[in-house]
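May I ask you for just one protein sequence along with its backbone structure tokens in two labelled lines?

_____
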Amino acid sequence: MSFSHDVRECIRSTINDHDRRFACLYGMLLFGRTVTHEEICLKSESEVFRSVFPVLLKTVFGASVPLAIENKPRKDGEILTIYRITGESYVTTIRHTFHIHEERRIDMRNLPTNSMGAFLGGVFLTCGSITDPMKEYHLEFSAPTEQLCKDLCDILYSVGVHPNVMQRKYTWSAYLKVSEEIEDLLTFIGAQKCTLELIEIKINKEVINQINRRNNCDMANIDKTISASEKQCRDIQEIISHDGLKELSPELQELAELRLENPHLSLAELGGMLGKPIGRSGVNHRFRKLSAIAETYRNL
């Protein structure tokens, strides 16, 4: 199952009293595909939506409102379920109850105390989605009209998150890409379990990133050590090809021989192997002397 499915499951478990059921159903209906004087139509591929919407409709309006349900199999194996409420009297009852007018707007009269989270949960059930956080952080609401998208953004601002807006072909999308804001919103709409899962995924990703950065740094240092060692060996061979190492001071001769025998050791490791051990800076200083001597021979 997808991460979006897990969020919807969490939302379903929180819709457990009259005010929350009312607010959740309002969010689902308001952001549905079509709301006219003759018809209300919603479409969803979500299993959770299929189990929640008919129950909420019956709970709020009783059995008096007929609901036509049509299932359409898709090529990818998913099932698109279409829900239709027809009949002007039934549609009028619903629109009047929720104050849904020709230009759909969010009406705060439909949101009793502490039911904003349930309303946003209903909106998510109808038109929300969230990408697998292992891939990226992206939560999105796909609103059917521009005005509803603007109203939704105002609601999201009021609860402390700051969505971006993008127009698609037939819809307007309000989306979040900041993981902390996605966590806050998931918590607000009742998906605390998914919030904890997202935080755990984020921590694991950061640990992996730190390991990769450390490994990359180690590899860069190894490459740098090898490159420096190759140059040092070339300098020593240049000296050998002329007067040999016997003309060098005992300290430089010892280091030159040690480097040729141990081309992959670091400066610090070489310094520890000298008859009189010295630090990395001391070894580096002696190699600079060897490099200068080699350069003199090259310029002859």
User: Anything to note?
Assistant: Residues 206-298 form one domain. The mean pLDDT is 90. The longest helix spans residues 192-240. The chain is about 60% helix and 15% strand.
